[in-house]
Description:
By secondary structure, the chain is an alpha+beta fold. It contains 9 helices and 20 strands. A hairpin with a 7-residue loop joins β15 and β16. α1 crosses α8 (329-344) and α3 crosses α8 (329-344). The radius of gyration is 21 Å and the shape is globular. The site of flavin-adenine dinucleotide has 39 residues, from α1, β2, α2, β14 and β18.
Amino acid sequence: MARIGIAGAGLLGRLLAWQLAGTHEVTVFDPANGPQARSDGRGPAAFTAAGMLSPLAELDNSGPAIAALGWRSMVLWREITDELSQPDTFRTLGSLLVAHGSDLGAAQRVLARLAQAPDLAGVVQTPQRLDRAALAALEPAIDPRLHAWLLPGEGQILPLQVLPALCAAAPRVRWRWQHTVASVAPGRIVLDDGSEQRFDLAIDVRGTGARPDLPVRGVRGEVVWLQAPGVPLHRPVRLLHPRHRVYIVPRPGDHIVIGASEIESEDRSPVSLRSAVELMAAAQSVMPELAEARIVHLETNLRPARPDNEPRIDTEDGLLRINGLYRHGWLLAPALAQDALAALGLPAAPLRGFPPPVPEGGHSLRPGEARSATVLDQASAHVDLC
Ligand SMILES: Cc1cc2nc3c(=O)[nH]c(=O)nc-3n(C[C@H](O)[C@H](O)[C@H](O)COP(=O)(O)OP(=O)(O)OC[C@H]3O[C@@H](n4cnc5c(N)ncnc54)[C@H](O)[C@@H]3O)c2cc1C
């Protein structure tokens, strides 16, 4: 059993803590007050995320490696949500691409890129054109005049349910809420009050909070929560539009989340009037019945991105860093976590999924580095079990 310290209780932090808790002594540090989402949208990007699992649609923004990780993660999410006894938080009903007639040219260019989807471990998915009747059968609230394509196999996860569930399913983990990490080094986590904790393995999954240890930036995203009783929506929908790439995602309780904007800014201030108007107008052009929906709240957050917008796993003795999950963290996290743990030779929860790659010269834990109790261990005031 190794002593493992994790900086960051966002998506990766919770996933890793849950996977490692069965076989290791795990401590997690995060500045948040506790495991739940904050009403102002601060905290992990993971809480704000739409939760679309779109390996095919993301080919429009990224390469085949992301798609391959995504398809693997889809298999893992099924196992994870089953293990968490939350099977309803993960669905693979496919997703839809839609376009207005006037934007068909731009849509065709996107579709041509997606049509080149690589054959990944026997998973070959390409967009399927839907006629009016097929669209009405799948999604009756979508304007039937729109052009529509089904992306089979794509999925959706419910972040607001899965994040607390991961935490609750790992009761042996020491969740140190209200603890901000200043730096992470091999076998060492230093808090912002200068105190230091020693571990066999230190894991840095602080997302945008990992600076200056890592060259990450935040990319602003904005979402609008609507409540729309009686307006059916079963799967994520993306509007292919030259300017407004809006997505519309169903959530429990008659809720619908609209999102889009990707702004190169770390501004966490509230959603601008222009963004809100554009998002909602575009969404209403897809689903006219949203006109009577109620605006529940608006939220902004920052996607953690590296300079090349690619995710990255860095390992060395006593240290693991994963960052740069950018706009597809939910899509990638399980496969990245699996690869990282395999590279370190760490046994984790028995998830099957696709077999992880055989580690090549992976770094293992340096034995005997762990120190016993520190000041933090005695400071139980901020320990919060999920
Ligand atoms: C608007 C929006 C929509 C999105 N939609 C999707 C989507 O549909 N599908 C998809 O796959 N992905 C989506 N994403 C991306 C996804 O949310 C992120 O890629 C993912 O959350 C990254 O996971 P992470 O664990 O690296 O970071 P985070 O989830 O951001 O977690 C980082 C954690 O580190 C903690 N932390 C920060 N600083 C410190 C510190 N100094 N000390 C200790 N802890 C610290 C934070 O409090 C947080 O808990 C979206 C993101 C946004 C913002």
